[in-house]
Amino acid sequence: MMSKINFESILHNELFSEEVILKLKTQKLHVIVLAVAEDSLCAKYLNQYLKMGMHELSRYCDAVNENVDPGCLYPKFTFTLFPTKEHKLDVKKCVIEMMKAQENYFKTPEMLLAFDETAADFLLEVKQILESELKQTSDNLSLKTVYYPKYK
Distance between CA atoms of 18 and 73, rounded to whole angstroms? Predict the structure, then answer.
């Protein structure tokens, strides 16, 4: 029997709610953001809430985008940097890699696709691929709910 994973939209202002930040800090939530170091959701989560320095943040974002491969920050954080659309990338491959990190390392019951509003179309593409991939997985997944901001 296939597992049922719920996809739930949240409002943009809920991305930084006390509940979301607490779950992130206690490693109960896997957050996926675009690897953009400045003026982004990535910077706000990592710099403002998780206290990562901007130099280190920029290095991680640069590495993810140069390698065109998601970068997970395990075991320090339940956080994945997703390559930006400006880079030639295989989105399905990146989603599969992100799911491998979720199931092999993070094992959180919840995931948040926190893409900036300027990437709303890219967010929908990633969400659709993730939904398709999750339909093919077995019942023993730790993941139960995927949240995403609703921009459109």
Answer: 21
Paired sense of beta strands 79-82 and 110-113, if any: unpaired
Q: Which residues contact 118 (CB under 8 A, 6 or more apart)?
A: none
**Residues 93-111 pLDDT 10s:** 999 999 999 999 999 999 9
- Smallest CA-to-CA distance from 131 within 87, 90, 104, 99 is with 99
Q: For 33-77, write each residue's pLDDT tens digit.
A: 999 999 999 999 999 999 999 999 999 999 999 999 999 999 999
Residue corresponding to tokens 């989105």 = 91
- Using CB atoms within 10 Å of the CB of residue 139, give its burial: 0 to 12 exposed, 13 to 18 middle, 19+ buried: exposed
Burial label, 82 (beta-carbon count in 10 A; 0-12, 13-18, 19+): buried
Domains of the chain (ranges, CATH numbers): 6-149 (3.40.220)
Answer whether 0.85 is exceeded by the pTM.
yes
Q: Contacts by 95-98 with C-beta closer than 8 Å and gap 24+?
A: 95/126, 95/129, 95/130, 95/133, 96/133, 97/69, 97/70, 98/32, 98/70, 98/72, 98/130
Please give the span between the terminal C-alpha atoms of the chain, in angstroms, as a whole number: 33
Between CA 11 and CA 74 the distance in angstroms is 27
